[in-house]
Amino acid sequence: MDARLLRDVFGAFATGVTVVTCESSVDAAPHGATVTAFTPISLDPPLCQVTLTRTSKACQYMAGQPFAVNILAEDQVDVAWHFAGRPARPAPEVIEGPTAPILRRTAATISCLPWASYDGGDHLIFVGEITDVQLGDDAPLLFHRSAFRGIGPCLDASAWNGCSDDPNTGWFDAKTTFMPMHVLSGAPA
Question: What is the pLDDT of residues 56-85, one digit of tens each?
Fold first, then answer.
């Protein structure tokens, strides 16, 4: 597999931008890293995951440590760059959070206790049990095709209404039926 092509394909999937923060078990100092590989996992129990490059400094601090996922607001590009290795002056403000240090003025913050970690190839996958959340009013910062972006206008305000993952009926409940897919011969898959 061509690594550059694979990176470009992954980049076609727009993601939110987060800064994962924790305290070092060595010196109790706060640390953070910009991470786009964040995924909500479960409502019951409440779980989410972040993946960090195995060779990163941040990855060394995460093992067995409580952490916070700070979902950056659209106007926090400088914060994303700061925690990606391009320091901002002044540095973003870090305050004490319920489980780990958190950032001020984010679109949302998810505080976690360590749940599990897994091998993810050149990354490590950290799953956290969510113990506290904070939700702001700001639009989130996005990352798409190697560039920071805003969310843009809402395309359809009624996305849940009647679809299979409507929160009132659940995702793929017993009543859900599936239509078979038909592949046209000679068409690219």
Answer: 888 888 888 999 999 999 999 999 999 999
Provide the whole-model pTM: 0.81
H, E, C per residue of 151-174: CCCCCCCCCCCCCCCCCCCCCCCC
Distances (CA, A) of 48 to 92, 131, 187: 24, 11, 38
Phi and psi, residue 45, nearest 5°: -75, 160
CA distances from 6 to 11, 119, 145, 170, 184 (A): 8, 20, 12, 33, 26
- Given the candidates 3.90.1150.10, 3.40.190.10, 3.40.50.1260, 2.30.110.10, the CATH classification of the domain at 3-149 is 2.30.110.10
Q: What does the alpha-carbon distance between residue 115 and residue 117 come to, in Å, rounded to a whole number?
A: 7
- Listed by start position, the domains of the chain span 3-149
Which stretches of the chain score pLDDT less than 70? 155-174, 176, 186-189
In this predicted structure, what is the pLDDT of residue 29? 85
